[in-house]
Amino acid sequence: MDGEPMAPKDWLLLELPLMEYGEAWDLQSRLVKARGEGRVNHDILLILEHLPVLTLGRQGNREHLLVTENFLQSKGISLFHVERGGDVTYHGPGQIVCYPVVNLRGTGWKIAKFVETLEEIMISTARDWGIDAQRSSVNRGVWVGKRKLGSIGIAIRRGVSFHGLALNVNTSLEPFSWIDPCGLEGVLMTSMEQLLGKKIPMEDARESLKGHIQKLFNVKFTNISLDEIKGGAFWTDPI
After folding, report:
1. Active-site residue (options: 44, 182, 200, 229)
2. Which is nearest to 54 in space by CA: 64, 44, 40, 41?
3. Which residue of 28, 66, 202, 232 is most buried, as measured by CB atoms within 10 A?
4. 182 an active-site residue?
5. What is the mean pLDDT for each group of 10 consecutive residues in the chain (239 residues)?
C-alpha cells in the first residue's frame, strides 16, 4: 500500500580479519566484475581492518607523501596506487574500513547521495560515543572541529560502487604525519580513542557501524564467509 515503508533490501555481509590491502583490493575487483556482469545476485558489504598501508587515489600526488618509500619500507608500510577518488590516506589496525559493492544503477542511488550516506554512517557511529562529528561542505569525510575522523573514497565501475569509508577508532595517528592526508596541507587527523582518551572495543564500534548501515541504507544482512565467496554459494559462477 502507498505510504508503507519499503522492505529492507538484502545485502551479503563479509566480515574479514586483519588483511593485506592488495588481497582485499583483488577480492573487491573480482566481486565488482561479477556484480556488474550480473553473476552476483546481491550487493555485498566487506568490513575489515588493514595491515599498515598508504594508498594514493586517482587524484593522488606524490608531493603529498612527505617521506621516502625507503622510510615507509623501514616502518613496514606498503604503498598502493588505486582507482578510488581522493588523494593519499593511511589504513591500519584500529581503523574500520567498509567496502560496499553496490549496484547503484539497480538501486537508484545517486553517487552524491550515496557518499553523503557513507558520511552519515560515520557521523552516527561517532555520536554513539558522544562525539559530535560533522561533514564539511568543502572536503568529503567527517570532522570533529578542524580534525578529520573519517575518510571517504569510492570508485564506480559498470554502475557498481567499490572502495568506501575508513573510520579511525583506535588507529595510530603517527603515519598520518608522513602525508598530507587527502592531499590537504596542514590537516590533522584524529581518532575516537584520541578524542575520548580511551580505547574503544573494536567489536562494539563495528556493531554500531553495521547498525547504522542497515538503518541508513535500509538493508538487512546475510552473513557469509570467505570460503562461501570463493565457492560461489550465492551466485551463478564462482569468482
Report:
1. 182
2. 64
3. 28
4. yes
5. 64 94 91 88 94 78 74 86 72 97 87 95 98 87 94 90 95 89 70 98 98 96 88 62
